[in-house]
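Data deposition worksheet. Section B asks for the primary sequence of the deposited chain exactly as it was used as input, without tags or linkers unless they were present during the calculation. Section C holds the resulting structure in token form. Section D is free text for depositor observations; keep each observation to a single sentence. Incomplete worksheets are returned to the depositor.
Section A, Depositor: J.P.
Section B:
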Amino acid sequence: MKYRLYVDESGDHNYNDLDDVGHRYLGLLGIAIETDYYRNEFQPKLEMLKQQHFPHSPDDPIVLHREDIYNKRHSFGVLADPGRNALWEQGFTNFVRDSRFIIFAVVIDKKSHKERYGNSAQHPYHLCLTFLLERYKGLLNYLRCKGDVLAESRGKNEDAQLCRVYSYVWDNGTYYNSAQSFQSALTSKELKLRRKVANVGGLQLADLLAHPVKMDILSSRGKIAWGTCFGKQLAAEFQNKYNLYGRKLLE
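Section C:
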């Protein structure tokens, strides 16, 4: 079998406003999906779910975006109706529960990291990606499978930097992992990138789950208090999809 890891983030990578809890933590999420299952079942079922709740022309596809859904804007303005919103939340929860994928999640406390390492502190996104790749590679080696990585494009300069980090790991490995262990698992020495408008189902799922996974990890470590909300209920549904392989908090 072959897998693809779909990567998206929750939060920003800057070391600014770190006393603000909204800026202090960056979460990077990877969703590993087997490619034949993705093509034959996952993507078609996701498109059916979107058509059911947000009818649209296939020539002008709806792209799921957590920020727009949360604020009920653009195509998701229909969710201002409590009844339709409840149906959407239940439908999406069922989709997540019934889909086959594995979650890897890394969350970094940028304030603690900066205080500990000072000017030597690494770029938060790049550090999280390295840990994410280690865990993904470990799963692939364990299963004796191969896979690649697709991340959401974040801008010309950011993309170029991210590709260099990925290529460095491919060529040199990490402190605890050899280059050969990555090269035996990853099918490509280059990171794949797509924009949000490309309507990639795996990236849309990563976008919707990145925030609740980050909040779930921080709540479980006593870093934040998380009130009752849809994200918290959703996290309870898919904890088994990432508890086994990867949930890490960097400080």
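Section D:
The mean pLDDT is 91.
The two ends are 35 Å apart (CA to CA).
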